[in-house]
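It would be a great kindness if you could assist me with a short task in structural biology. The full record is reproduced below for your convenience:
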Amino acid sequence: MINDAQYSQEELKDLVVQMARVANLVYKLLQGCNVHAFIEFNGLIQKYVDLCRRAAAEGVDFTMFNTHTGTSFEVHDHDVEYLAEKFDCIFGPLFRKYPELWTLFKKKLELP
């Protein structure tokens, strides 16, 4: 269910603080597993928190940025490069070994 609530800039900043706390706890838990690719998931989480922090600083309500609403962040090239680096570390070997799965993945994302 989509929540149409609008948050104040201060509330958005508070949400980011909470999200960062959770991301840091997750990182500590992931380190205990000592599996590099698994730990890389936290890089994705941390980048998401960074994007939310940037949006909150600009007073932009990021809480409903998702595929269901069709809304998203403003991002920079370096953000996308970082996300690609993390995703590649986790799943790149799989998709290089099985290119047909990469084709399926892109199809599911509705990408060219």
Observations:
- DSSP finds four helices and no strands in the chain.
- Helices lie at 9-31, 36-57, 77-97, 99-108.
